[in-house]
Design goal:
Blueprint: E1 3-7, H1 30-59, E2 65-71, H2 80-87, H3 89-99, E3 103-108, H4 124-142, E4 150-156, E5 164-169, E6 174-178, H5 184-192, E7 202-205, E8 208-211, E9 223-224, H6 230-240
Length: 244
């Protein structure tokens, strides 16, 4: 597999009517009318609750996505909450909206030979092979899964090279992403979930151009869209359908 480098509730209205034989209009008192209104509201609440529960059951029936985020020792941000807010909350919202799966984050720090990995290397192929060797040994030691819904991403403070913000393989289980741009982690995770550069888009939105998460080369003059293109969403969802 070639390595991919990232350069710098609807409203439900139900009406039931039944009449047997001849129908005679019935007059209701104010008290009766209020009682029927109360009953109707209660029935609507019950129906809504049932529908919501069914939807929730549907959403959680699929296997969740697990992102293990290995924080390199050189990362200056010490708060996992701030990292989540800046780099992942919007990503989770987007992924959950089109995959129908919950997304879980696990931050991992201070792991010798893993979070102190020497990631600055001009040879990206060599760098990726060395990283994959380290992370695979870590997964074996910790008895962690290697499957289509578990991904392991090393987050670094700096770029890997002067022109490389991260790398991963398509449908792979691991990669590295620099925190230098807000979309680099989403970019590499997108590749690991099956997304491609070719299906990414630059979109005119809100008076300016923005890049979807998997645009091949980041242009500082353009904004971030903070979502995947529609075609990449379809690609990722299709790929994940193999892991119900």
């Amino acid at each position: 597999m070639p390595m991919l480098i990232y350069p710098t509730p609807r409203l439900l209205l139900i009406r039931v009517m039944a009449c047997f034989g001849s129908c005679t209009p019935i007059k209701y008192s104010r008290t009766s009318k209020n009682m029927f209104k109360t009953i109707a509201r209660s029935l609507l609440l019950i129906a809504t609750f049932t529908l919501c529960q069914a939807a929730l059951a549907h959403d959680t029936s699929k296997r969740p996505l697990f992102f293990f985020l290995l924080i390199h020792d050189d990362v200056k941000e010490t708060s996992n909450e701030r990292l989540a807010e800046d780099y992942f909350v919007w990503l989770i919202k987007d992924l959950e909206s089109f995959t129908g799966r919950r997304v879980h984050l696990q931050f991992v720090r201070n792991v010798p030979d893993v979070t102190d990995f020497q990631y600055k290397n001009e040879n990206n192929d060599q760098n990726y092979a060395a990283w994959r060797s380290e992370i695979n040994q870590y997964l074996i030691d910790q008895n962690l899964p290697q499957n289509g819904t578990s991904k392991y991403l090393l987050l670094t403070q700096d770029k890997l090279t002067a022109s490389t913000l991260g790398f991963a393989t398509r449908n792979g289980h691991t990669g590295i992403a620099s925190l230098e741009t807000f979309t680099a982690p989403a970019h590499e995770l997108g590749h690991m979930l099956g997304g491609t550069h070719e299906l990414a888009e630059v979109i005119y939105k809100g008076g300016w151009w923005c890049e979807t998460n998997l645009v091949a080369t980041r242009q500082a003059v353009r904004a971030n869209c903070y979502f995947y293109s529609d075609k990449n969403k379809q690609k990722i969802a299709s790929n994940l359908s193999e892991f119900p």
